[in-house]
Batch of 2 targets.
Target 1
Amino acid sequence: MAKKSITININGTPRSGEVEDRLLLVHFIRDDCALTGTHIGCDSTHCGACTVLLDGTAVKSCTVLAVQADGREVSTIEGMEGAALHPLQEGFFEEHGLQCGFCTPGMIMSAKHLLDNNPKPNEEEIRCGISGNLCRCTGYQNIVKSVQYASNKIQESESVGGE
Amino acid sequence: MSKCKTSSEVGGMGHSVKRKEDARFIRGQGNYVDDVVRPGMVFMDIVRSPYAHAKIKSINTEKALAHPGVAAVITGETLKEYNLHMMPTLMSDTQMVLPIDKVCYQSQEVAAVIGTDRYAVADGIELVEVEYEPLPVVVDPFKATDPDAPIIRDDKEGQESNHIWHWEEGDKEATAEIFNNSDVVVKERIYIPRIHVASIETCGCVSEFDKATGQLTVWMTTQAPHAIRTVLALVAGHVGLQEDKIRVISPDIGGGFGGKVPVYPGYVIAIAASVVTGLPVKWIEDRRENLQADSFARDYHMDCEIAADKDGTLNGLRIKTLADNGYADAAANPSKYPAGMFSICTGSYDFKNAFVEVDGVYTNKPPGGVAYRCSFRVTEAVHAIERMVDMVADEIMMDAAELRMKNFIPKDAFPYHSPTGWEYDSGDYHAALQLAMDNIGYDKLLEEQKEKRERGEFMGIGICSFTEVVGAGPSKDFDILGIKMFDSSEIRIHPTGKAIARFGTKSQGQGHETTYAQIIAEELGIPYTDVSVEEGDTDTAPYGLGTYASRSTPTAGAAAAMACRKIKAKAKKIAAHLLETSEEDLEWEVGKFSVKGVPDKAVTIQDIAFAAYTNHPQGLEAGLEATHYYDPPNLTFPFGSYIAVVDIDSGTGEVKVRRFMAVDDCGNIINPMIVEGQIHGGLTQGLAPALFEEISYDEEGNMTGGSFMEYLVPTAVETPHWETDKTITPSPHHPIGAKGVGESPTVGAPPAIVNAVVDALSHLGVKHIDIPITPEKVWRAIHKKEVA
């Protein structure tokens, strides 16, 4: 099968490859780039374990072709931690927002998309914002609290920074 | 436990310390099976049957083998050369790994394609040509034993029908006598349907065989790595796999819930493929394969009867159950319990007598069933009794809470001997229900319901007061394939006072790395942050039966406490040596031994650990470590009372769980944060089958659905805000008084929700609705009655 040359900017690093048209973005991320934090739970866009940001928008990378991401920016869980943990990572830790950890990276990326667009969501908006991501362990309650924690933390640091 | 014995820095029992394992998970650095990559690794995909029952006339692999990237195709004939085409189930039945001449359920494994990458093998399975001749199917278990039903297991000698086993417990005659002499008899057929654990990670493995050394290493999604190693050695010993050269590694597991206990054919085929090819083979099932072919749970048809007096005294219970096991009895039960612990069905009530019988049958469906977040059929048992108690209340027009309070086993009756042979270790059922009622404002809810009913609105209140039976189990009764159900802990204290602890269990999200460290912190005073916990590698961890059925804390948690006590006994000798006194003159307080009456004269556990390697007394072995294999004297019996409040939209039939109060009693608590998290998750896995999830088949044996499009795992939107509280009744026989909690909410939530829905509709004459309570079922219940 003919291959195409692509370059995807993943977490700020250009990643190039020769790929088949049909290669899924999630397989490019996991297998070609060895970034295994992005998980696969269903391959039919239901579970959200493979959620990444594509040019800042949350997408399920099991239903995006790698060639569609050519020349674009992808953010995965591995890019979340800077000098410190991202407030969402900290929130999931502090509020016991995870158990087996399998849905967690996708959940955090969906929550990032939510907070980027709605920095102070109420509980209903959080539940709606993560409704494309299935978690079988937590019953979502502590995930909601984790996102609230991050929202508060981001607000606080912005108000401190603004003074 | 109101007060903690240790400081928050030590982090012993009762502290909500944050989880140690989370550091890797929040960074995406967990190591799940699909993250395992080996040099030269190839991939495997599986050809599956479109038919529920069919002869295989031919399998043509030519086109598949000609496809670029395909290296091999494995069929039943390939495996037959090694006598590996059949395998035993955990219940000592047999099951095909790959078929020779017929398939017995839809999505059954038919052949496997090995190739260079995921895409090549996915192409390859499309190119394997299989010619089938469809056979008549058995779908309805009630028709499975009809004289004209096709015999599914004609491969088994002497198997002349689809009946597998009959099992009964209790006194049949005495129970019949009670039924003859009671004022009120209430009957109902209750179906608890097939469901699936649907862990977000599916199943899979990477198998690597070194031809030169004969070493087999398998990374696999298993909740019971040690048992798997032994099973592999037993079934494949004849082809040269011996147990000392088999290493099973259970890496991070993305949810198990019982679904990762069985050995699925895919694992065996991948192992065989790695032995045959000499290459590491990765097999990861997709979601459809996971839902369509892996073991189901439940699927019990229960004919239930309760005999009672007019005043609400419960006298007798009788349940006759048909268990649909599918193509093979591949249930995950202890060997002597074909129906698991279903006989716990007298629940929290002091019945005079009871009789329970279960018959297992074969049908053309995937084999099973697993104990999905359930101690071996206790979910079915609790569903039956908690529904029936409500039906009695409805029949005699008594409040459902009052009826429960009247019939609870009183707290001074423990240890309580149930009519079906269980010895309940401890309980205080009245206190738990009272707390739930007080918390939710039960009386006010009844008033609200009355007002709403007058306005034509549908609101219901449902109670479930369950008793669990967990921690299998005492070796005199409990084994799996002959291996006794103890569990183990091996603890080594390093010279600098840090420790490593290894266990025979395997966390799948339960937080063992934290809770086990806290037990050790509690016992030895070593901060939990100084204790590394390892599980899941059979080369390093002590032998144990694994994690399922809420058994980790009751068994391995107890083993940790006992191993610590052995270490403490030796530490005391070293302390006496260091303090130049006798052992009798020493006393222990958290983390140190001191001379009685001279508190300043003390040595810490860290001092002692250092001395164990640098200055141990003559005549005493160096080092500070211990191993304990804990054989529990009894099971533990967690309990709780749940109250659900539902509102029903009469126009659409939609049920909304407005409030849900869960009072749990799991004995002494190790980490309250983790316990509460387990309860949230378990409640959500109880909500799911109550309202949404079911695996069903059409009359041809086709699974209707089989993806997340139809199998409705609840999202954050459908899941209510859970309210939780607790009572604490320690287990009298467990070393730290703990009981196990993971499955209580999954067991207790469904009947509370069903009871609430039926309560909302009871004035229309509705007595019972089988789960899942879909909007359609509710709408029909409302409108049929309204039309009539």
Target 2
Amino acid sequence: MKKIVTLSAIAFLSTAAFAETDVQKQIDELKQKIERLQQINDKQDDRISSVNALAAQDNLKFDVDFRTAYDNLRYKTVSGETYENDALYTNRLWLGMGYAPTKDMLFRGQLSFNKAFGASYGQRATGFGFDTFDWVLNENLTDDTIKLREAYWLWNLRTGTVAWTASVGRRPATNGYLVNLRDDDKAKSPMGHIINMEFDGASVAMKLDHYVPGMYFKLCLGRGLTNATGWASEATQAVGAPVGGSSLPNYVEDDSNLDNVDMAGLIFQPYDDGQYAVMTKFYRGYNVPGMYLSDMDFGTGARTYTMQSAGDMDGAAISFKMDGVGDEINDFLDETILFASLAWSKSRTSDVSISRTANAQMALSMMGMDADSMMGSDEDKSGTSIWIGAQMPNLTGGKFGLEYNHGSKYWRPFTYGEDTMIGSKLAARGDAYEAYWTQPIIDDVFSMQVRYTYI
Amino acid sequence: MNKIVKIALGAALILSVGASTASADANKGQKLFAKKLKDACGMTGAAMAGKHTQGEWEDLHKNGKLAQEIKTICPSVKDDDVADKYLEHYFDFFHKFGSDSGNVPAC
């Protein structure tokens, strides 16, 4: 009996020893498996990132901004006449594109469509009206073609503590600083008080925010109009259709046409700490064109105008923005934006020589206007404008905004592309008021704005 | 000359769809980054977002380690500037422009 017990004990101990060895072995195997799985997981993470990069960084990435609008417009003229449109329905599409092959080089583009509902019976986008002029092509209601609004490359550089950017292409100077608040867009580089139009050109920026928060200089160069004949210009002239043409070879300067229109501007942001910001800009537009009366039929009142280079225009502005009032006083003040801006413009007239009929001369004399002038005067004229505004959060998660601006008699900014159906509010000589309410409806992707503008 | 406009009135109702508007969450985070973190971090928001992939930012946010990671990358950031109420907006911004996102920041 004793022997049997002893044998049983040995068998138990031996089984226990084997079991312990077996568990340890299983733990070791599991550890190895976990390590292998971890390695596989890490590799898969790397691979997913690579796939993301392949899918995104080496290809164009699109974004969309599509707006449908109902506008109600009313005008009252000096003579007391009124004009109105009770219901103007429009669609506007911006299809943005981004491509960043490296962290130093990126491309951005934007395709655009902006049209009233339905057809245009010879009223809009005829190709010969100012609504299709290059400076405002995508800001006006035209046809259902997709047009290029933006296409530029941008190179990021760094020398020591100073960062640089260089950029060339079509880079619309629209939706600029402060005017972006109403449009619920991110600000682009121009100052909305003085510049809001499309242009092709280049810019170089030097960022000094290592020394002063937000400080940078940016030199902008643009060409607003190129004087060069078209392809087969002589054939166009010979046929006489639809218009234009010349006897000159392809793409050469034509002295009988408008001069090149160029622009140079310097943006200087002395300070921006994310809450308090000051932004300044000076520009000069060279050879800006003007419309001059060349003939008038007193019987029908029909007038004929000639476009000619009129002189240069200078402009400057200084804008202040407070993004959040105080420091953590409450959410309402944290989300409130206040701004004020002061701007100046000056015409720099040059000699203009227009061939006029006697009727045109007489008409100008009756209107008391200088014949060859800018803004109705053959003297240089300065104008000024002030602009103040506030944007506040409301209880429904949206934003409410109020703006006021006032321009003097000879105030003349380059804001033809400003996003209102009744023209540029900021170009007003006199008072202009605006109120708007922007309300997100579905998350941050679908929103509504109600706006009222008085110029 | 009698057609010169004296008064112009415009009323508009605009409905818009698109994630590139200033109201978008990522833009709010970008704005907060400029206000609260940029100086302390000494880098642009795009550079900061590029410190991690989108998946890594998701993990940090999900595991409640976003504030800690911001302070690791930017040691001089104050606790108040990574308060809970800001973290969701920072995450939206960092995630949108994560290193493998392919999204191109505005410039």
